[in-house]
């Protein structure tokens, strides 16, 4: 399992690096870099949403594709980590080459974003069996539940602002809203059945 996870991470970083090298070597401008920042966050949000809503979806739609969604949750979680690491790397380029984004960012937003990255890397690390087995199932569930909801909140807030403030990104806002709806429906239905919904 560890080998397939590492292969996935390396291939995705290689492809992102190739694409960025091609475009940024030809059009190394602030606007082009901002397109990479926004698209890295968008693809990260899509992989995150698929991983975070997989079990809720599989609870309501019994089909091979929802079962596969649950089976490949670790791969989608790690893909989220790769694309959102690219978001951070491109932000670093923006900071040092064009615009001091970290200096100008509101302290609260920076702290919220940084905490999301801490959760993201802890969740990615504990996806690997070696580190997962070092935690109790309860601690692992708690880390991935609290971390998942915190990351969801930052994405939801970003796309809520884009939808309301700029009349853009309605699809992404709808995707993050669907995740909320499915997880709450899953929580309520499992509580009504007397179970728990920690995954
Ligand atoms: C740690 C510090 C972070 C900083 C300084 C930061 C900064 C930025 C900046 C400057 C943009 C706008 C790029 C542009 O379109 O011009 C952006 C976009 C975005 N960021 Fe981050 N970000 C951070 C962390 C995060 C985190 C942790 C998340 C989600 C978990 C996130 C989600 C997004 C999303 C979804 C967009 C696109 C929003 C849109 O299209 O309007 N960011 N970020």
Detailed description of the structure:
With 199 residues, the protein is an all-alpha fold. The protein has one domain (2-192). It contains nine helices and no strands. The longest helix has 31 residues, at 30-60. The two termini are 20 Å apart. Protoporphyrin IX containing FE (HEM) is lined by residues 34, 37-38, 41, 45, 87, 91, 101-102, 105, 110, 113-114, 116-117, 151, 154-155, 158-159, 162, 169.
Short note summarizing the structure:
The protein has 199 residues and is mainly α. It has one domain (2-192).
Topology:
Blueprint: H1 2-26, H2 30-60, H3 64-71, H4 73-97, H5 101-104, H6 107-125, H7 129-132, H8 137-166, H9 170-192
Helix pairs in contact: 1-4, 2-3, 2-4, 2-9, 4-6, 6-8, 8-9
The structure holds protoporphyrin IX containing FE.
Which sequence of SSEs, written as H and E, runs from N to C? HHHHHHHHH
Major beta sheet summary: none
The gyration radius over C-alpha positions equals: 18 Å
Discrete helix count: 9
Ends: how far apart? 20 Å
Summing up helix and strand content along with how strands pair, one would put the structural category as: mainly alpha
Question: What best-fitting shape do the alpha-carbon axes yield?
Answer: globular
How many structural domains in the coordinates?
A: 1
Task: List unreliable stretches of 5+ residues.
Answer: none
Which ligands does the model contain, each kind named once? protoporphyrin IX containing FE
Record field, number of beta strands: 0
Work out the strand percent: under 5%
Average pLDDT: 94
Helix content: over 70%
